[in-house]
């Protein structure tokens, strides 16, 4: 029987005796270096906490002045205002509260229109046979609509005048949400204009929205004059320029997000007061900035960052491309329904195109359920081509 050898430092099992430790003289510690490092560290900490206010003091650091410190020191954490604390508590509780289960979940279709809806006949075809799975709400800001479909009869809410570009547009959106939220069965909310049309049948739209794990709210960074150029420092401290966003107003949102919009007073008041045409010499359009900025601040992971309503800004004019009867073809509509990349065009020089794949519940899907802007003269061709 072999006896295992004890392993020892050496070669091939041979034991070697290591020489004894040598006597080393104590290290001469560079006291002056330690003191210098400590002094510089203390100096920088004090400069960070109590930043120099004079130009002379700033130039002690660099000819670039005080900016040299802010370039690499982390930004100080500011103390939240009472309003922000209250807002965050409300937002957290709403998002953490499980959605109310409905035995009959519905989509609320909310039409923001000056008067009668030119595509009511097309929408009637879209809704037909799906009673109990949708609700209709109409905000007519100029004249009482004349209806041709029973689905739209007596569906007007209390409306107020709306001016394009004014904050009254945001108020109209919130008013529609408030009326639609009164029905506990409404679980998803769609904002549409009088020039909007559906691109798919009702079942497709219902399943796309009701089974989505997000709200479809448009949101992107536009560094140009019609994006961040509209930002006002008077929104500080609650809204910083780095959080300012832009997006189309035509949204769809889950019930929890609709409740957040209703509960918000903090960011609503900032945009009401400081984002309006010609305020502070800027032409801020609140319906393009309020909701994108609000959701970027309170629940950025809960929105898709694109709208499911197709709008063509490729002509790069003040208004999107509009469609006449001769423009409406089968190929045009088929193209709309096959697009799976959304495009944002910034307002800076040259207009940068920002492309984003449309990801639905982790899977790339076609982006659009609706489209605008169609002239009333296109109705007959749309009825024939869509044929719901």
UniProtKB/TrEMBL annotation:
Q: Which GO terms describe its cellular component?
A: membrane
Q: Which branch of life, at top level? A: Eukaryota
Q: Where is this protein localized, as stated in its record?
A: Membrane
Pfam name, any one: Branch
Annotated GO MF terms: glycosyltransferase activity
Q: How does it sit in the membrane?
A: Single-pass type II membrane protein
What residue intervals traverse the membrane?
31-50
Q: Give the record's keywords alphabetically.
A: Glycoprotein, Glycosyltransferase, Membrane, Transferase, Transmembrane, Transmembrane helix
Recorded hits in PANTHER family, A to Z, give: CORE-2/I-BRANCHING BETA-1,6-N-ACETYLGLUCOSAMINYLTRANSFERASE FAMILY PROTEIN-RELATED, OS06G0661900 PROTEIN
Name listed for the protein in its UniProt record: Glycosyltransferase
């Amino acid at each position: 029987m072999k006896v295992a050898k004890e392993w020892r430092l050496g070669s091939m099992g041979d034991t070697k005796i290591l020489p004894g430790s040598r006597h080393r003289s104590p290290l001469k510690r560079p006291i002056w270096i330690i003191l210098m490092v400590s002094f510089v560290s203390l100096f920088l900490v004090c400069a960070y906490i109590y930043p120099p206010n004079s130009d002379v003091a700033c130039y002690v650091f660099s000819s670039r002045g005080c900016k040299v410190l802010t370039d690499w020191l982390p930004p100080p954490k500011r103390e939240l205002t009472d309003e922000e604390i209250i807002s965050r508590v409300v937002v957290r509780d709403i998002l953490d509260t499980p959605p109310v289960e409905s035995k009959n979940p519905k989509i609320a279709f909310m039409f923001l229109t000056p008067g009668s809806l030119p595509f009511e006949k097309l929408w009637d075809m879209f809704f037909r046979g799906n009673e109990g799975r949708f609700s209709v709400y109409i905000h007519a800001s100029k004249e009482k609509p004349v209806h041709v479909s029973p689905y739209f009869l007596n569906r007007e809410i209390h409306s107020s005048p709306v001016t394009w570009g004014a904050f009254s547009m945001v108020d109209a959106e919130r008013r529609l949400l408030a009326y639609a939220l009164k029905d506990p069965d409404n679980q998803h909310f769609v904002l549409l204009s009088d020039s909007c049309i559906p691109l798919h049948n009702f079942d497709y739209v219902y399943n796309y929205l009701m089974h989505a794990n997000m709200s479809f709210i448009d949101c992107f960074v536009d560094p140009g004059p019609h994006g961040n150029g509209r930002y006002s420092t008077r929104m500080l401290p609650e809204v910083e320029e780095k959080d300012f966003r832009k997006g189309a107003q035509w949204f769809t949102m889950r019930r929890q997000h609709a409740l957040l919009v209703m509960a918000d007073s903090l960011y609503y008041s900032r945009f009401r007061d400081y984002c309006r045409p010609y305020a502070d010499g800027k032409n801020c359009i609140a319906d393009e900035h309020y909701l994108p900025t609000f959701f970027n601040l309170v629940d950025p992971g809960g929105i898709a960052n694109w709208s499911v309503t197709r709008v063509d800004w490729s002509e790069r004019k003040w208004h999107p491309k509009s469609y006449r009867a001769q423009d409406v073809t089968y190929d045009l509509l088929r193209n709309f329904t096959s697009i799976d990349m959304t495009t944002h065009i910034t307002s800076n020089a040259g207009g940068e195109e920002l492309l984003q794949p449309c990801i639905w519940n982790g899977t790339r899907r076609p982006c659009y359920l609706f489209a605008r802007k169609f002239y009333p003269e296109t109705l007959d061709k749309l009825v024939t081509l869509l044929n719901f």
